[in-house]
Amino acid sequence: MPTGATDLLRNFVTRPLFNTSGPPADVRGIPKITIVTPSFNQVDYLERTILSVLNQQYPNLEYFIIDGGSTDGSIDIIRKYEPYLTGWVSEKDRGQTDAINKGFRRATGDLIAFQNSDDLYAPGSFHRVAQAWQQAPNTDVFYGNLYFIDEQDVITEEMRALTFCAACQVYEGMQVFNQSLFLKRDSLTRFGLLDEQLRFVMDYEIITRLGVQPGVRFQYLSDLWGGFRVQPAAKSSNIAVTGRQEHQMIKDKYRGRLNSRFGETFWRRYCRVRKLAWHLTRGEFTYILHRLLLKK
């Protein structure tokens, strides 16, 4: 991967860059963005997640950290940044989904998102989403692309999204990466928060639930990036059987809402062709070749 993007990301999350003094910024006309970080014993990465939020220097930010009762030094890090947080708690919870919903219930932002305590936002993410919201305030879901990063914040891989297709979401799998996902708070008020019965694929479920609703609008932002950290203790590194079972359950639940006469075989083939055509028309030949080589 290009070292320039890695250097930019590393510099962004290794020290405070946000202004801690000066008069309040004028927030008229820009959306309030609420970020929720669920965390439990992620002391090695939590500070970099926090900095990826605060270093956005976004003037209309609401930021909650919902900790599950960490005992590894995470609380010291949270207290370090407490003056810049809207709120935080450290208490036993029922898992990640419960923690995210705790934060969502406190949210007052126009747009809300969650970023796990080992993942990152890339520079400029909040301002890019705010710009898109100003241009299309009736949009329900904004989303972008994904960097895979290692334990030292080195970008090891890219995953590029494309415009949303509900059938591909159901039959092929997640079309939207939660690391670069922003939801209109009113949409969750209408259709409900994350499903707390799910341990691994709560993001897949909420996007599928919104995706099959008539009139729900999605917008892909090609210059919006989030970072997903691949590290041994990550919950997603241990998804195994339970995650696959949850995924199948959600697919079975929502496939009937598509109102399509075509079955899974057609849609899975269509989604692959659609993805290839999307990247070809944008001249992303190196990216296509790289993705094809990975599958060999």
From TrEMBL:
InterPro entries: Glyco_trans_2-like, Nucleotide-diphossugar_trans. It holds the Pfam family Glycos_transf_2. Residues 34-158 form the Glycosyltransferase 2-like domain. This is Glycosyltransferase family 2 protein.
